[in-house]
Amino acid sequence: MKIAWSIISIIFLLIIGILIGKTIQCWPIFTLKTEIDTVGAAISLLSLAVTLGVAYWVATILESTKEANRVEKDLFIKRIDDIYLLIEDTSSQVALQQIEHSLAVSSIKRISVNILSVIDTIATTGIKVDDTHRTNIVLSTRSLNTLLTSTPRLTQQHLDDIPLEVREGIILMSTDRRLQIDSEFDKLKRLIFTLELAINKA
Amino acid sequence: MDRVEVKIARDFSRTPGPRYIKEGKWSGELFRTEKFYNIFNDAINNNKMVVVDLDGTLGYGTSFLEEIFGGLIREHHLDYNQILTHLEIVSEEEPYLKDDILAYLNDAHEDSLVNN
Predict the structure, then answer these.
(1) ipTM above 0.90 for this complex
(2) Which of B113, B116, B32 is nearest to B80 (CA)?
(3) Domain housing A193
(4) CB of A156 less than 8 A from some CB of B
(5) Does any CB of chain B come closer than 8 Å to the CB of residue A145?
(6) Is the pTM of this model over 0.80?
């Protein structure tokens, strides 16, 4: 049955082709040349070859480069998301207004070193991200470290309102200082989100 | 100039602590009084360079670094310019700590000028 349908289809298409050929021959606006322009044909063939080459380049090389770029960007963004979780974790510890000194300094260092490592790795790929992201993130982590770990010297300890003190390795902070730290954490999160957007757009 | 290397992670602790001994373990005060001042004083007297390597620790609190460097001027009355001449800081992991330390030394120097 399938073979019969195929034969009928081929005969039908042949008839349609013959009819179109006859129509073009009879139609006054169409003129058919019976000689071949070899130079024109060669140029046309060359043009066809170039078009096919460009199509192949766009379809394979350009698309695969684009795909590799996308995968790299996704990997960087995933890595930054992990650092973002570390920031949230440290931020929630600070919300209790006390945090172990060693935990505070090590978390800030991990955040700083990891984010700078990602930014430096991005610089080695073709992805272009503005230097201001790095500068602003460094400033913010330094500010956080100072807010969290800068305790007063002996000469300053007579002050009634000490924002931060360390007792037996635990950092205790005033509400004002905690709010300052919260605000700096929010700023750092915004900067990191902006960096992710920049990576995505690059 | 001969060089003396001080690697805090190796020669003191991988977990440097707060400013004062009374505040917790591995404080800046402990490091300065038991090790750092002697090393630095000896280096100045014998014209050696002290190379302080900050890498390899779990991180530094601002007060720890301020206490060990600023304390050299504040507590031991070492000369600011002599310290700068004999100090080299290595910090690959957190390069900005070099600027912080120079700022602590400068602040301690200016405070000492005001107090004298």
Answers:
(1) no
(2) B113
(3) 71-202
(4) no
(5) yes
(6) no
